[in-house]
């Protein structure tokens, strides 16, 4: 799927992604990168509460159940919510590289409508890395992990330092995150990345 627009096409000097030696084994749940994250946080009652699991290679699977709070049209998931699920799944991949990265570009295809109560089965993989640029692709299926594709996306994530959040985030939340030992541990795991 990757590379439908020039900025999502890896350059000639791009390399294959390398799974970090400390990446969690295939099958392991990753857990939220931040409890208040709209995509994965368990402290966000109306968030997606998406649970991502490491797969083989630099790949992830994730599941997200569409709730009534996620509607756009009556009884159907909002497209922006589905794009969020793809964004979150693609963002989780960076944990396997031990890279902190933010979404630079996200290109989404909405292939089929997704009704409320549907479980969206997502799978994503990193396809290439070039310097700070991380290229990845994802699909979301309905009816089961092998079901029909309802959504798909290609993305470009850009690696950043922890300072990206400290410098740009609202001080209230940054200070709370920095005084949370679990959050600090997660941030440190990234910073020892060689
Ligand atoms: C202890 C407390 C601390 C807390 C710790 C927290 C740990 C948390 C862990 C993990 C968090 C992950 C959270 C995931 C959440 C889900 C994912 C999201 O939704 S993220 C939110 C949405 N995204 C943004 O808000 C980005 C906003 N944009 C920016 O900040 C900048 O534009 C940024 C950083 C992306 C790039 O800015 P530059 O100044 O660093 O770098 P430049 O030089 O502009 O770009 C680098 C390369 O990338 C290309 N590039 C950048 N943006 C592009 C774009 N949109 N399309 C195509 N190429 C792009 C450029 O052309 C350049 O390429 P060439 O090196 O020249 O080849």
From TrEMBL:
Please give the Gene Ontology molecular function terms for this protein. Answer: hydrolase activity
Cite the Thioesterase domain residue spans from the record: 75-134
- InterPro entries listed in its UniProt record: HotDog_dom_sf, THEM4/THEM5_acyl-CoA_thioest, Thioestr_dom
- Record-level GO BP terms: fatty acid metabolic process
The enzyme's E.C. designation: 3.1.2.2
Alphabetical keyword list:
Apoptosis, Cell membrane, Cell projection, Cytoplasm, Fatty acid metabolism, Hydrolase, Lipid metabolism, Membrane, Transit peptide
Show the catalytic activity.
Answer: (5Z,8Z,11Z,14Z)-eicosatetraenoyl-CoA + H2O = (5Z,8Z,11Z,14Z)-eicosatetraenoate + CoA + H(+); tetradecanoyl-CoA + H2O = tetradecanoate + CoA + H(+); dodecanoyl-CoA + H2O = dodecanoate + CoA + H(+); (9Z)-octadecenoyl-CoA + H2O = (9Z)-octadecenoate + CoA + H(+)
Q: What class of enzyme is it?
A: hydrolase
CDD domains annotated for this entry? Answer: PaaI_thioesterase
What topology does it adopt in the membrane?
A: Peripheral membrane protein
Q: Which Pfam families match?
A: 4HBT
Positions of the region Disordered?
1-25
Q: Name the GO cellular-component terms.
A: cytoplasm; membrane
Subcellular locations according to the entry: Cell projection, Ruffle membrane; Cytoplasm; Membrane
Q: Into which family does the record put it? A: Belongs to the THEM4/THEM5 thioesterase family.
For this entry, the protein name equals: Acyl-coenzyme A thioesterase THEM4
